[in-house]
Amino acid sequence: MSLKKEISRRRTFAIISHPDAGKTTLTEKLLLYGGAIQVAGAVKSNKIRKTATSDWMEIERQRGISVATSVMGFEYRDLMINILDTPGHQDFAEDTFRTLTAVDSVIVVIDVAKGVEPQTEKLVKVCRMRNTPIIVFINKLDRPGKDAFDLLDEIEQKLNLKVTPLSWPINMGQFFKGVYNIFDRSLYLFEPSKQYIEEGISFSDINQPELKKYIGDDADMLREELHLAEGVYPTFAVDDYLSGAICPVFFGSALNNFGVKELLDCFIRIAPTPIGREAEERHVDPAEEAFSGFVFKIHANMDPNHRDRIAFVRIVSGRFERNKPYYHIRLGRNLKFSNPTAFMAQKKSVVDEAFPGDIVGLYDAGNFKIGDTLTEGEMLHYKGIPSFSPELFRYVENADPMKSKQLAKGLEQLTDEGVAQLFTGRATGRKIIGTVGALQFEVIQHRLLHEYGASCRYEPIQLYKTAWITSSNKAMLEDFKMRKSSFLAYDKEKRDVFLADSPYALQTAQEKYPDIRFHFTSEF
Ligand code: G4P
Fold this sequence. Notes:
By secondary structure, the protein is α+β, with helices and mostly antiparallel strands. It has 3 domains: 13-73 and 85-270, 3-Layer(aba) Sandwich (Rossmann fold); 277-375, Rossmann fold, CATH 3.40.50.300; 392-519, Peptide chain release factor 3, domain III (Alpha-Beta Plaits, 2-Layer Sandwich), CATH 3.30.70.3280. The protein has an 8-stranded antiparallel beta sheet with strand order 27-24-26-25-29-30-28-31. Strand 17 and strand 18 (333-335) form a beta hairpin. The protein is globular, with a radius of gyration of 25 Å. The two termini are 40 Å apart. Residues 46-54 have low confidence and may be disordered. Bound molecules: guanosine-5',3'-tetraphosphate. Guanosine-5',3'-tetraphosphate binds at residues 17, 19-25, 45, 47, 88, 139-140, 142-143, 253-256. Guanosine-5',3'-tetraphosphate is lined by residues 17, 19-25, 45, 47, 88, 139-140, 142-143, 253-256.
């Protein structure tokens, strides 16, 4: 098959939601349609629940699951669909942000009763920054919830999205009758816990009197609401969706397998095929013959006897081939991969080739960092995988003097994986760990001990924010560095970082040194 054909067969996306909205359930139903799994319950939730924060076995178990469910590929109607999983727990938000750089579109799941929740807001914001096409699935219609118009209003306001419903719910909760599919003008009747694939009843004109036969007195309400909706929401156009200007909305119940097939059928018709990516040097098109890709996630091996890790590479362009040498831009040398892994549902298998939109897992003994680019030789640096300025900080101290080498290596590798960020105080040489969630500190301590045999202790540090600093005014930068020397650190790339101990300190520094730029993401 030609490269262009392979590209046109692929759809790579993520499902995002606030925890408990139904992401895992929806993923599972989608896999059932693809025949990738046979029974419900096969997809284990990849969420690290709040209650599990001090349960190490639980975290280890969850990490195992999260490798298995990192990427779930399946075939549906001759298409290759890759679902990239994202951790629901907010302490792992950075992981999710990075995963979003590797997809071409997203499905946002919203609980009909809870509406737009904080984590949904954060994640959609990241999608909006890149104009990622979004489909919204409003879930749990079998339960009482918010009125459809109110909910769509809330989505428009809180998520700053323009929406257009492609299906419309007929009542809800115990009176839920089904949905009218505006996209293919047909009626889908709800039956709880149905095990077969529903067929729609064609209804090109909802004013036909037979409608009453199917949904009784709700027919009048449906007609009225659809009439109103037609006036309020724009007509759906695929191009508007692809440019991120408009988001189609579906209603259903993932648990009852209702509305899922329509979602999937619409998705495969409208969702984008793999799109290119911006490198610092130029835009790269997926149909270019030369292979290129970037690492967006690194996962440590769970087996303590094998110290290797899996680097997840999103293929941007060309054909990736097993055992062919590829150029690792940051290291400046060629690497070959004898066991590249593809992920189909929950199985991993070695692949001989892969195409744009695919994710391959490369076994790695420590060569990769998040954001690394691989090519056939061209100097390209893919953009868009920034680290954000962390929010929580601690000094990390060696608790076992005999193991300082192990500690240094462990910290280096764990931070390459993106678990946290590591800074070194310029004046003191003390190591500072910065994270976006409290859970990471415990994960690091645990993993240092179990994977590297090193123990560490944390000490508090009064720190509000870190900012990378740059300036074209060399004299001002030098002056700043001299005066603030005790508030300076290096990151792992030896770049200068300002340690602001309070919002006030940051503000005054910004005012006093107008030629210095303070960056809160690592890409500047
Ligand atoms: P998440 O991955 O977004 O965190 O959500 P998940 O799919 O785990 O779903 C969260 C809870 O909501 C689960 O119940 C799940 O069964 C339920 N759920 C999902 N879709 C629907 C739906 O359409 N209708 C109803 N009524 N419930 C739904 P749980 O009790 O927390 O877990 P479980 O014991 O059922 O797994």
